[in-house]
């Protein structure tokens, strides 16, 4: 979807997504010492605000300015500071080797675009830093529910791992996620990787 389409979706409701942080993210960052975090494709900022509430110094980027404005409001209501930025991830180049945690959650982008974002996300990791990616798995197209119907916007854990040379892969798996009103779950891909110290 184009930026204007996302902006329309975000403008049409109070909150497009849950106000709670993503449950897979919560599980993956448990036990990590707060440091600098980068949330790529942050949407309305629920994950960024949650991380900031735990003491993380968070930068959050999305190209939908309506979503970023909602994130700024959410952070203000929560009484936390998040450096929200409007930016297209195909153009955005984060500070190299500076972040202890980089998130990419449910980014809908072509496979070529994802390769570029993963390359830059990897470069942004500080020594010992962790990358967490969660998104709609390819199997979701035929066996799950919801998510994009375009194969080029989907991926498998193995496809993501192939784009992370030099990182230690800690997890690469498929996860099932219950969806209200459906008798079968959504299928997501999770990859957690770490830059060696």
Write the layout of secondary structure elements.
Layout: H1 3-11, H2 23-29, E1 36-40, H3 46-53, E2 57-62, H4 65-78, E3 82-86, E4 99-105, H5 111-124, E5 125-136, H6 140-143, H7 157-161, E6 168-177, E7 186-194
Parallel strand pairs: 1-2, 1-4, 2-3, 4-5
Antiparallel strand pairs: 5-7, 6-7
Helix pairs in contact: 3-4
Structure commentary:
With 197 residues, this protein is an alpha/beta fold. It has one domain (3-194): Vaccinia Virus protein VP39 (Rossmann fold). It has 7 helices and 7 strands, in the order ααβαβαββαβααββ. A 7-stranded mixed beta sheet has the order 3-2-1-4-5-7-6. Strand 1, helix 3 (46-53) and strand 2 form a beta-alpha-beta unit. Helix 3 runs parallel beside helix 4 (65-78). The chain starts with a helix and ends with a strand. The relative contact order is 0.14.
